[in-house]
C-alpha cells in the first residue's frame, strides 16, 4: 500500500500486545502508549534531512552531521492523541505542539471540531498528527484538512492501530499523507470500533467510561 508504513519492530509489537489486553490498567496503558510513540517516532523521522557541521571534541575538530533547520510540529487530536505527545517530545524536544479537538458523533460517526490551537508558522513545518486510533478515518482526514487550510503541505499521521476503512478514508482525499501505524486490523464493527482494536483509546488513557 502506497504511503502506509506498518512498523513491525518487535518492541513495538510486544508493547502493542500489552496495550490491547483488556487487563492492562490506565497507568500501564499510558506508559506503554508513550513508549510505543517513542519507538514509532524513531522510524517516522528516519528521513529527516541532515547537514554537515563541525564540533570540537576534547581531542580536536570533528566533522559531524546534524539535523538541518527543518522545523517540526506535532499535532495530537484530542483527547487520545495526547497520550503520544510526550513520547515524541522525548526524541524531539524542540518540536512545537498544536492541538486539534475533535470528537466523533456516536450516531453519525462524523468528527465534530471543538478546539484548534496551532503554531503560527504551521505552514513552514513538517507536521506529524498523532491519534492512536484510525477507525473510519473521519477525524484524521478532518485534522489534515484543517492543517492544509492553514497552508501546511508536509503532513504525516502516526497511529497505533488502523482499520482498512480508516486508511482509505484518509487517502481518498489526502493520498500525500504518509500513514505510520503499528498494526492494520481486520475491520470496523457496527459502532465504528476497530476489531479487534483496543477498545476506546481515550477512555482507557484517562480512566473515563
Ligand atoms: C477516537 C480516536 C480518534 C477517533 C477515531 O476519538 O481517538 O480520534 O475516535 O475514529 P474515526 O477514525 O472514525 O474518526 P473520540 O471521538 O472517541 O474522542 P476522544 O479521543 O476524546 O475519546
Ligand atoms: N475510537 C477508539 O477509541 N477506538 C476505536 O476502536 C475506534 C474509534
From TrEMBL:
Record: residues binding uracil: 194, 199-201
EC code(s) of this entry: 2.4.2.9
SUPFAM superfamilies assigned to the protein according to its UniProt record, in alphabetical order: PRTase-like (SSF53271)
GO terms for cellular component: cytoplasm
One Pfam family cited in the UniProt record for this chain: UPRTase
Gene Ontology annotations of biological process type: UMP salvage; uracil salvage
The species this protein was found in: Tepidanaerobacter syntrophicus
Name this protein carries in UniProt: Uracil phosphoribosyltransferase
Record GO terms (molecular function): GTP binding; magnesium ion binding; uracil phosphoribosyltransferase activity
Designated gene of the protein: upp
Entry's cofactor comment: Binds 1 Mg(2+) ion per subunit. The magnesium is bound as Mg-PRPP.
UniProt: 5-phospho-alpha-D-ribose 1-diphosphate binding residues: 79, 104, 131-139, 200
Catalytic activity line of the entry: UMP + diphosphate = 5-phospho-alpha-D-ribose 1-diphosphate + uracil
Biological or metabolic pathway of the protein: Pyrimidine metabolism; UMP biosynthesis via salvage pathway; UMP from uracil: step 1/1
